[in-house]
Design goal:
Length: 401
């Protein structure tokens, strides 16, 4: 067994639902991310890449089932490089990186390109296939953008509540008040704005040309500088009339793509760069579907055990903010310093294009460790239907000193 390493990561800016990226197909967004990450390692012959493992949570429309293969071809990669697409909903691109790291560690591949994409704007409406030709009754089109669809009647009703209602239940269970959630959400926006202003994302984000006039999106579209809990308090609850979940303390529907290049240590010469971080631990966990927001708690604990470290060793955490309440519940359970979590902003501000978010977490975490010179970091993400994934990164540039 060998180790697997993260060599490079980029992403597109994340666009708002029906925003600047609405006119761009998901396979084209993915191809832009692939082109961007390969530009970071110009000495690498793309034909040396053993596989492309790509994340995507939809696949029902222009994603064209295997969007990883489509994007690799659109990016101009050799047809000899294979590609697959992974669907673990919100965790798809983190799962893609986990799968790739295992392939490298077992010797099945030496260099693997991973990432993910989602255009939630362009997700199609679908019609269930009728039982017979020419049905007399009306048919209802169902949005594939987010959440449950065409639910099997045998599924318990408690499991199939909306994502928002599931997090209302989480707020009830852990007694996390609206004010605390709004404060967390406002901080996400302000930290994201500060990170962009300081140039942290300059090396991580590739601009996207959005029209024939050459207009480009260069920054995440959903960031609201100067956000405050008082302003967010004015928003109405979205799922219960007396609830605590609002559009302001939940991640928005988004479009975007991310890409992460992984390889073995011996691949460094062919890649033409030194690795940023080692994939040191992995964790997966599942529980009741409606409790999905709390699943990262145990997934991260398992990843830490796999890496042979514990929470006091960790200096940086990237936790996907699907909802403020679930992020807070996990942080409380870990009993960690909130100051090490999402210091460059999180999904509430940056956006959450489902299939791309795991790659964003890994790229941001690796660069945070590089910036701080500290050793250990954790990336974790909750996943609809009661799952979560986590990865521990070790900053090899720090440990090699």
């Amino acid at each position: 067994m060998t180790d697997s390493y993260l060599y490079a990561a980029v992403r597109t800016p994340f666009g708002r639902f029906s925003g600047a990226l609405a006119g761009i197909r998901p396979d084209d967004l993915a191809a832009l991310a692939i082109t961007g990450v390969l530009a970071k390692v110009p000495m690498l012959d793309p034909g040396e890449i053993g596989d492309v493992v790509w994340g995507n949570a939809n696949g029902a429309g222009e994603d064209n089932r295997n969007v990883g293969r489509m994007a690799a071809l659109l990016a101009g990669m050799p047809t000899s490089v294979p590609a697959t697409t992974v669907n673990r909903l919100c965790g798809s691109s983190l799962d893609a990186a986990i799968i790739a790291s295992r392939a490298i560690e077992t010797g099945d591949a030496d260099i693997v390109l991973t990432g993910g994409v989602e255009s939630m704007t362009r997700a199609p409406w679908v019609l269930p296939k009728p039982q017979r030709a020419y049905p007399a009754a009306d048919m209802t089109a169902v949005s594939t953008t987010l959440g449950w669809r065409l639910v099997n009647e045998r599924m318990p009703k408690a499991w199939t509540v909306s994502l928002g209602e599931a997090n209302e239940q989480l707020a009830d269970r852990f007694a996390i008040p609206r004010r605390r959630q709004d404060e967390f959400a406002a901080q996400s926006h302000n930290l994201a704005d500060a990170a962009w202003t300081a140039g942290f994302y300059d090396d991580l984000v590739v601009p996207v040309t959005v029209d024939d006039k050459g207009s480009t999106l260069t920054r995440d579209e959903g960031i609201r500088p100067g956000s405050t809990a008082d302003r967010l308090a004015a928003l109405k609850p979205a799922f219960r009339t007396d609830g605590v979940i609002t559009a302001g303390n939940a991640s928005p529907l988004s479009d975007g793509a991310s890409a992460v290049l992984l390889g073995s240590q011996t691949a460094a010469a062919r890649i033409g760069a030194a690795p940023l971080a080692r994939i040191a631990g992995r964790g997966v966990f599942a529980l009741d579907p409606q409790m999905f927001g709390f699943a990262p708690m145990e997934a991260a604990n398992r990843a830490l055990k796999s890496a042979g470290i514990s929470w006091p060793d960790v200096s940086a955490v990237e936790l996907n903010e699907a909802f403020a309440v679930q992020a807070l519940a996990c942080m409380d359970a870990w009993n960690i310093d909130p100051a090490i979590v999402n210091t460059k902003g999180g999904a509430i501000a940056l956006g959450h294009p489902l299939g791309a978010s795991g790659g964003r977490l890994l790229g941001t975490l690796a660069h945070r460790l590089k910036e701080s010179g500290t050793q250990w970091g954790v990336a974790a993400i909750c996943i609809g239907v009661g799952q979560a994934l986590a990865v521990v990164l070790e900053n090899v540039r720090e440990t090699s000193r």
